[in-house]
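Project standup — Tuesday

K.O.: blocked on the structure for the chain from last sprint. Re-posting the sequence here as requested.
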Amino acid sequence: MISTAVIIAGGLGTRLHPLTLEIPKPLIPIRGTTLTEHVISKLKEAGVKKVYLSIGYLSEKIIKHFSIHDLGIEIEFLIEQQPLGTGGWLKLLTQEQISKDFKEDFIVVNGDNLFDLNWEAMHDLHKTNNSLITIALKEVEEVSHLGVVRLEENKILEFVEKPPKGLEPSNFINSGYYIFSPLIFNILPSETKIMFEKNLFPKIASLNKLFGYKDNSQWFDTGTFERWHEVIKNWKV
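H.V.: unblocked you, prediction finished:
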């Protein structure tokens, strides 16, 4: 069982303007509760006891919200004073936090997405492969406008961005849900700003330590008004 998770929730949510000019994206409503609370609910089901929220834009509103809403889980905040990419939060963790909460495998999720995946099965695959990072993969029909993975069984060899139709190495995309090994702290890039797709994943793939877990459970992203409405309509709690 994994006890610690990180939710990446520092984005500006520009495609949801004007809504996100006043409401930070982690707090957009979905059936009477916030997007982040739905994410946390699924993490609690997986056995997570503590969540780190990596936030930046309108962070004071997010902190205030979770200070008055008890979700039955411990929450700490990692505050980006400037955008640090998808992985910059790794550099915001103190040695005390790492030694206390990141000694074992931990979950990382993109706070934009909702995924009802099987964390136990994914963790089993992660441990079996002695993986540094395991990415939950979602199969989609149309990938010409997305990045897809090239696989060798469960091992991720590379990401192929926007492949031409008919030349796709697979139809599996990165869902934004991950399991990290604590060994990742030994091989982080030197830069303060870290983009998973550019600075970290290729390095892990070159070490043959990047794997994919395929799951066909319900998955949604909330990047646009159209997708947000789809989540409201179809997300099954």
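K.O.: great, moving the ticket to review. The CA atoms of residues 15 and 62 lie 19 Å apart. The mean pLDDT is 92.
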